[in-house]
Amino acid sequence: MTGLVRVATVADLEDTRRLAENLAEVMTAGDVIALSGGLGAGKTSFARHLIRALADDPALTVPSPSFPLLQTYETPSGTEIWHLDLYRLSAGNDVWTLGLADAFAEQTTLVIEWPERMRRLLRGTRLLWTRIHLLGESERSFRFTAFHPAWRERLADLFSPHDQSALAGARGR
């Protein structure tokens, strides 16, 4: 099955924040946001802004979970947010050994950096795959691919040609 693809280009960190906030507005409990990209692409910055928006706390401290692998947060409605950074894991058994399969509880929202390390576990989830490319010193391209029907609909609405205000500052197509 092919996914719906939408691309947004942001000029700076402020545009990245707005894009993350707009994405957070259409998210629901149980969503899985996979953040893929090279070192320094902006995965952690995007995750930080997304989690702050979901938690409705712009001052929330959101450190990179590279060393502990996992940080947890909570939304005002009580939904758990799991922020995973799987850079240090090898693909395969490490994910199972650490019990990360438990993260797919119905009411848990996942934000995963280096999701390639657990690709098998992501099948059948409400996944939005996000590939981030560094285009310049601060300019980035976000390629969103929605495979799940719920995300295809939300992504199409977010990037509606009739209402580009959802992207506030980002250039989308």
Short description:
With 173 residues, the chain is of the alpha/beta class.
Structural classification: alpha/beta
Q: Regarding quaternary structure, how should these chains be classified?
A: single chain
CATH homology superfamily name: P-loop containing nucleotide triphosphate hydrolases
The CATH class name reads: Alpha Beta
Please tell me what the overall shape is.
Answer: globular
Q: Strand arrangement, largest sheet? A: 3-4-5-2-6-7-1-8
How many beta strands in the DSSP annotation?
Answer: 8
- What's the total helix number? 5
Strand content: 25-35%
Amino-to-carboxy terminus distance: 21 Å
Question: Overall pLDDT, averaged?
Answer: 86
Elements, N to C (H/E) = EHEHEEHEHEEHE
- Mind telling me the C-alpha Rg? 15 Å
Description of the structure:
The chain has 173 residues and is of the alpha/beta class. It has a single domain (4-165), classed as P-loop containing nucleotide triphosphate hydrolases (Rossmann fold, 3-Layer(aba) Sandwich), CATH 3.40.50. Helices cover 27% and strands 28% of the residues. The chain contains five helices and eight strands. The chain has helices spanning 13-26, 43-55, 93-97, 119-122, 149-158; strands at 4-10, 31-36, 70-74, 80-85, 108-113, 126-134, 140-146, 171-172. The protein has an eight-stranded mixed β-sheet with strand order 3-4-5-2-6-7-1-8. The mean pLDDT is 86.
Summarize the topology.
Layout lengths: L3 E7 L2 H14 L4 E6 L6 H13 L14 E5 L5 E6 L7 H5 L10 E6 L5 H4 L3 E9 L5 E7 L2 H10 L12 E2 L1
Parallel strand pairs: 2-5, 2-6, 4-5
Antiparallel strand pairs: 1-7, 1-8, 3-4, 6-7
Helix pairs in contact: 1-2
